[in-house]
């Protein structure tokens, strides 16, 4: 996701600011962070639209600040300094500590993959992950970002937004599908969100990864009815029938309720 999209700015218009160099630097970091390979200066120029002369100076500064690492071939990756910010964010977010306490005390999902994520614009970002012993074909990592409409936690959190807010959040370009099953339109997603509100848990049946089914539930604190996070548990699709899925949905809902109470939300029992 671009910085403009994450902040709610119109992606078709330049962000109005008195500090354009900061916006350009964040755009550079976004492009580098999104790439699995070192990014060359020419590629950065094409992706960001920043003139090479200006880009060169910005990158030199980011390298000196250890926000970017320059490799011998000139390609750039994220620098080590950003981990300090990530650790500070996690240390200030006691939800991760409470999640671990609830999960470790629970007898449910001891061998399964359980994740905690928060909503960031139209994406989810994973704050904590316990990867189970079943080979799901995907390994969840702290900091991983995925389109909210395709994930169990994303569907769960979106279902708690005020009327129209979810539609506004997804009013821009619909995210590229991750699988053939990925929900393709907002009306279809709205039906799934209605199911979450009705049953108390969400279902991602192969929308994030084929052959995997995830059950999620929203997590609340004392601030109100808008979810502050989402919990999910993942299985291989061929392990789950309808009755088992209902049981798992109730279990993840119960686990999310326990976490919510620890965060100050009233009991939903």
Distance between the termini: 37 Å
Percentage of residues assigned to helices:
40-55%
Annotated CATH homologous superfamily of the largest domain: GAF domain
Question: What is the CATH C-level name of the largest domain?
Answer: Alpha Beta
CATH topology label of the largest domain: Beta-Lactamase
Q: How large, in whole angstroms, is the Cα Rg?
A: 20 Å
How many beta-strand runs? 8
Tally of individual helices: 10
* Helix-strand category: alpha+beta
Note the run of SSEs as H and E.
Answer: HHHHEEHHEEEHHHEEEH
Largest sheet: 6 strands, antiparallel
Average pLDDT number: 87
Task: Estimate the strand proportion.
Answer: 15-25%
The CATH level-2 architecture of the largest domain is identified as 2-Layer Sandwich
Count structural domains: 2
Strand order of the largest sheet: 5-4-3-8-7-6
Apparent shape: elongated
Oligomeric state of the chains? single chain
Q: How would you characterize the overall build of this protein?
A:
InterPro entries: GAF-like_dom_sf, HTH_MetabolicPath_Reg, Tscrpt_reg_IclR_C, Tscrpt_reg_IclR_N, WH-like_DNA-bd_sf, WH_DNA-bd_sf. There is one protein chain. By secondary structure, the protein is of the alpha+beta class. The protein folds into 2 domains: 20-90, Winged helix-like DNA-binding domain superfamily/Winged helix DNA-binding domain (Arc Repressor Mutant, subunit A, Orthogonal Bundle); 93-263, 2-Layer Sandwich (Beta-Lactamase), CATH 3.30.450. It has helices at 3-7, 20-34, 41-48, 52-64, 82-91, 95-105, 152-158, 165-169, 186-199, 242-262, and strands at residues 68-70, 76-78, 113-120, 123-130, 145-147, 202-205, 212-219, 229-236. A 6-stranded antiparallel β-sheet has the order 5-4-3-8-7-6. Helix 6 crosses helix 10. The longest helix has 21 residues, at 242-262. The two termini are 37 Å apart. The model is unreliable at 1-13 (pLDDT under 50).
């Amino acid at each position: 996701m671009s910085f403009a999209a994450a902040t709610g700015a119109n992606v078709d218009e330049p962000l109005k600011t008195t500090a354009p160099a900061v916006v350009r630097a964040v755009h550079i970091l976004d492009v580098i962070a999104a790439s699995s390979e070192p990014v060359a200066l020419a590629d950065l120029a094409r992706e960001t639209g920043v003139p090479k002369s200006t880009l060169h100076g910005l990158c030199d500064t980011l390298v000196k600040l250890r926000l970017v690492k320059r490799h011998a071939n000139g390609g750039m990756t994220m620098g080590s300094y950003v981990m300090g910010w990530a650790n500070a964010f996690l240390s200030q977010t006691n939800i991760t500590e409470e999640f671990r306490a609830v999960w470790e005390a629970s007898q449910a999902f001891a061998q399964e993959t359980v994740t905690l994520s928060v909503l960031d614009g139209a994406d989810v970002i994973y704050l904590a992950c316990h990867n189970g012993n079943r080979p799901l074909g995907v390994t969840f990592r702290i900091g991983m970002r995925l389109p909210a409409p395709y994930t169990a936690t994303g569907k769960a959190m979106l279902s708690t937004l005020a009327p129209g807010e979810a539609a506004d959040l997804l009013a821009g370009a619909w995210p590229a599908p991750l699988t053939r099953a990925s929900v393709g339109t907002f009306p279809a997603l709205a039906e799934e969100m209605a199911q979450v509100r009705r049953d108390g848990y969400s279902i991602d049946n192969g929308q994030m990864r084929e052959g995997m089914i995830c059950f999620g539930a929203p997590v609340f604190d004392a601030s109100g009815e808008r979810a502050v996070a989402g919990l999910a548990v993942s299985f291989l699709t061929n392990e789950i029938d309808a009755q088992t899925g209902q049981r798992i949905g109730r279990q993840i809902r119960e686990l999310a309720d326990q976490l919510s109470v620890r965060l100050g939300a009233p009991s939903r029992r």
